[in-house]
Amino acid sequence: MVLISFCRWSIFVGLFIVVAASVAAYIFAPKGENQTIWRSSLILAFAACYIMWALTLLAQLHPLIVPRRTDARPEGGFSSSQPAAAF
């Protein structure tokens, strides 16, 4: 029950962590002529990693195609004349 509850909130927890890291990157970016490049690069990297993680997590929680078992035994079982298929 705890695992299911955590999975529901993990998207928002991850978003909060990414927003906090982005704010920290914005505030603590090294000063100088490349400050804007540092800020935008770090924030873009955080956002891209979050989107990839969120899509992977959601694809595992709610798959579009239901997986099928391929190792299930056929109805009649294996006969002696037909060898078992190697998977």
UniProtKB/TrEMBL annotation:
Compartment(s) where it occurs, according to its Swiss-Prot or TrEMBL record: Endomembrane system
Q: From what superkingdom does this record's organism come?
A: Eukaryota
What Gene Ontology terms for biological process does this UniProt record contain? vacuolar acidification
- Give GO MF terms, alphabetically: proton-transporting ATPase activity, rotational mechanism
Any single Gene Ontology cellular-component annotation: endomembrane system
Q: Which UniProt keywords apply?
A: Hydrogen ion transport, Ion transport, Membrane, Transmembrane, Transmembrane helix, Transport
Spell out the InterPro entries in the cross-references: ATPase_V0-cplx_e1/e2_su
Q: State the membrane topology.
A: Multi-pass membrane protein
Q: Enumerate the transmembrane spans.
A: 9-29, 41-59
Q: Name one Pfam family in it.
A: ATP_synt_H
The entry assigns this protein to a family as follows: Belongs to the V-ATPase e1/e2 subunit family.
Q: This chain belongs to which protein, by name?
A: Uncharacterized protein
